[in-house]
Amino acid sequence: MADEDNFDTGDMFQDPEGFYEPEPEPTFAEHHMLSGQTVRVRLVGSHPLYGNLLWNAGRTSSHYLEEHADRLVKGKDVLEIGAAAGVPSIVSAILGARTAVMTDYPDVDLVENMRHNAGLSAALVGRDSALHVDGYKWGASVAPLLAYLPEAARSQGFDLLIMADVVYSHREHPNLIQTMRAALKRSPEAVALVIFTPYQPWLLPKTEKFFPLAEESGFHVTKIFEKVMDDVLFENDPGDERLRRTVFGYEIRWTEEELK
């Protein structure tokens, strides 16, 4: 009778070489600031939460922040949600934000990649600015994010929320509003910057429902620009090409009633 304790299975439970497709290697992308500085970021090789792309809205948000740095960024406390590679957060820190908190869904690969990108740009960030990275699920408590602020500011909230290409997730609109209400400082100057491209143009009416929902929730919505890019991000996608090349920008602030 064979000794079962010493039974040799050989390689029968080993997957043959080449059985699984290799994971795509991470790639790198560069964002060129208007100042001439270059922000280099690593993109996740392949990820269902789109951490493998540098989106037009992220680039456009970063340029808008640079153009309006004195009003929106310098000396301010900034929170980015849905950051992916995190270019707007990094640019905010470079531009002199007092605090910049870069967040995305609390997935290990996404958060680790954001930390990597924050490290890549550390030399560009001045000593008076602090850049932090954390995982955050929209609609969840913002207390862990407020903890990154200087102690005196934690009860007040963030001066600026950056929300680039997040409103495409229609079922998440209530959670995004909840995060805005909990995180944005109750101040006339505090603003949420919402920038997006309708990569699926036929869904634009659903995407735009975010804005009346924001108005019903105590915010005033102002459209600030509509910029047509030179190229589409996804060449073979269906739908109106001009819309797929267009970046829409909005500033959202508290209504006077909410500030009373």
Question: Can you lay out the helices and strands and say which pair or pack?
Answer:
Layout: E1 27-32, E2 38-43, H1 56-67, H2 69-72, E3 77-80, H3 87-94, E4 99-104, H4 108-120, E5 130-135, H5 143-146, E6 160-164, H6 173-183, E7 191-196, H7 204-207, H8 210-216, E8 219-228, H9 241-244, E9 246-254, H10 256-259
Parallel strand pairs: 3-4, 3-6, 4-5, 6-7
Antiparallel strand pairs: 1-2, 7-9, 8-9
Helix pairs in contact: 1-3
Mean pLDDT: 90
Q: What's the alpha carbon Rg, rounded to whole Å?
A: 21 Å
Shape: globular
How many helical elements?
10
Number of domains: 1
State the CATH class: Alpha Beta
The span between the termini is 86 Å
β-strand number: 9
Helix-strand category:
alpha/beta
For CATH, the homologous superfamily is named as Vaccinia Virus protein VP39
Helix coverage percent: 25-40%
CATH A-level architecture? 3-Layer(aba) Sandwich
Strand content: 15-25%
Task: Output the helix-strand order.
Answer: EEHHEHEHEHEHEHHEHEH
Low-confidence stretches: none
Going across the biggest sheet, name each strand in turn: 5-4-3-6-7-9-8
Largest sheet: 7 strands, mixed
The name of the CATH topology is: Rossmann fold
Family: Belongs to the class I-like SAM-binding methyltransferase superfamily. EFM7 family.
Function: S-adenosyl-L-methionine-dependent protein methyltransferase that trimethylates the N-terminal glycine 'Gly-2' of elongation factor 1-alpha, before also catalyzing the mono- and dimethylation of 'Lys-3'.
Region (Disordered): 1-24
Subcellular location: Cytoplasm
